Amino acid sequence: MFRAGGLIGHPLPSALITGCMIVYLLTSTNRRRSLLFSLPEVVLHAAALFAFGGRTGLVLVPLVVAISVILPAPGVPFVRRLGQRIAIVAILAGAMLATQLQIGPVQAALSRFESDSGSSETRYAAIEMVRELPTSDLLWGVSASERELLRLKYNTPIAVENPWVTLILIFGAVLLAPMAVALTVALFASAWPLDRSATMVVLYFLISASGYVSFGNKSLSIVQVMLMISALCGLRRVEAIDTQSDVRDVEETVPDTYPERFSSALR
Predict the structure, then answer these.
(1) Would residue 2 count as lying in a domain?
(2) DSSP of 5-30, one letter per residue?
(3) Is the dihedral of CA 255, 258, 260, 266 positive or negative?
(4) Residue range 218-246: average pLDDT?
(5) 84-88, 110-114, 147-151, 248-252: which has the highest mean pLDDT?
(6) Which domain holds residue 143?
(7) Complete DSSP assignment for 26-51
(8) Are 33 and 96 part of one and the same domain?
(9) Nearest CA among 253, 252, 239, 258 for reference residue 28
(10) Of 55, 157, 160, 169, which is the most exposed, with the fewest CB atoms less than 10 Å away?
């Protein structure tokens, strides 16, 4: 079954970044960028998500956007919050309509929900690898040759389809625990001073990236999401600040942890 690879060259990372972009577009609180203006971009990326066969994204994007709507958002206009609620309904309605119209990429993506034996087996295999490990290997990791034997045994010769399992096999749980905490804290700490959409993008990324190898063998996906929230969410906050009529009122609302480059824009 054909699956588009996108500019990144592989369906899974392309679906991951596309889902991050949709979450950003639907949860951004930038007042100069209306949801109506973002609608064509959302439609384009949603179509790409179907073409990539991103099942996790198809389920997770509406869920993360719904979480953003449910959570309190002080200072966000009621009209924008209402627009986000309407966007969720529109996404669900559009998905239902697409399934009824028998559109090729949509049907291909939906068929992957029905016939998912290959992908499911590789993910179950990752869990079975961990269950098979003796306690010492689970804590301290295994050698490269042993990892290769495990992949061959469970018929996943290319890679283990779970980044956390991959890192356990390489480093062991003792070293992975602080690494996982550091990664989570670093991502959310980077997102916190920015527009709230950055936090939603990070939440989506951490959940979605756990479904395939992603940062298990390279840090490219982490760099991509960091660049995304820095370029999009950070700049949007500056634009929103520039639209305020009273700069002094805005200065009082900027957190102390705000990056210096944004604080200097207020002076």
Answers:
(1) no
(2) -TTTTSHHHHHHHHHHHHHHHHH---
(3) negative
(4) 69
(5) 147-151
(6) 117-171
(7) HH---TTS-HHHHHHHHHHHHHHHHH
(8) yes
(9) 239
(10) 157
User: What contacts 110, CB < 8 A, 6 or more positions away?
Assistant: 99
> How many structural domains compose the chain?
2
pLDDT tens for each residue of 10-69: 788 888 999 999 999 888 886 566 667 778 888 888 888 878 877 888 889 889 988 888
pLDDT band at 181 (very low <50, low <70, confident <90, very high): very high
Asked if residues 238 and 247 have their Cβ atoms less than 8 Å apart, the reply is no
Tell me the whole-structure pTM to 2 decimals: 0.76
Residues 87 and 148 in one domain: no
Asked whether residue 200 falls in the same domain as residue 160, the answer is no
On the 0-12 / 13-18 / 19+ scale of CB atoms within 10 A, 245 is: exposed
The CA-atom distances, in angstroms, between 68 and each of 17, 78, 183, 205, 267 are 18, 14, 22, 15, 31
Please name the residue that has the structure tokens 């490269």: 144
**Residue type at 225 in one-letter notation:** V
